[in-house]
Sequence to fold (262 residues):
Amino acid sequence: MTQLDHQVDSIGPEVTGSRIFKFIAFLYGIAAYLVFFVTILYAVGFVMGLVVPKTIDTGTDTPSAEAVIINLLLMALFAVQHSVMARRRFKAWWTQFVPKPVERSTYVLFASLSLLLLFWQWRPLPAVVWDVDSPDLAVTLVTLSFTGWVLVFTSTFMINHFELFGLHQVTNHLVGKQTGPARFKTPLLYRFVRHPIYLGFIIAFWAAPTMTAGHLLFAAVTTGYILVGIALEEHDLTDLFGDEYRQYKQRVSMLIPWRRSV
Fold:
């Protein structure tokens, strides 16, 4: 819903408050965002098999068992990095070494690098699980996958895209503006599902006219990780917003629109 930024700013104010640091932090935040932007665009092509030089179904030929192990390790690396660095306790510890204004940008950068490593080292499993023969149905599935990616992007802008990916923080720091306390908000799509970003990813990963074993492994593991990530995130949000978030969970479904939560 919102950014959880209640870390302790343990880096000395004489460092973080200097003009040079503010400018360097701003450039660092822009660089981290650009790496993220390239990574997410590559992710679209990687999953859908479009434009990029290496997709989910191309790459080094590897025995199936070895490919599964390598791919699982790559996804586990991303999952651990992405989940651990997002936790409030880790942030409180981490900001003893990384200044608070660039903490989010650093998180985004590390997540992007983990994904780029996954794309680079991913091993294809080309066995076909299903292949849609109907051209109309195939086009429908491709369109649905694109719709999932659009849902991901639009949902981030509904809750402040630039805060989510660190630019808001470094810009505020550059101009000397204090970041306000976290506020609970449910704009547009968030009134129908609690996690439209995750829903978009699930749609994008599963809507494939040709589903190979490698693509299926990727979709299944990432969906499982999303469900675990939701549980962790909602635990933090409940701690932060209390009854306000508990009532929201009762009103709005987790992923399936218009279905009341249990």
Notes: The CA atoms of residues 84 and 90 lie 7 Å apart.
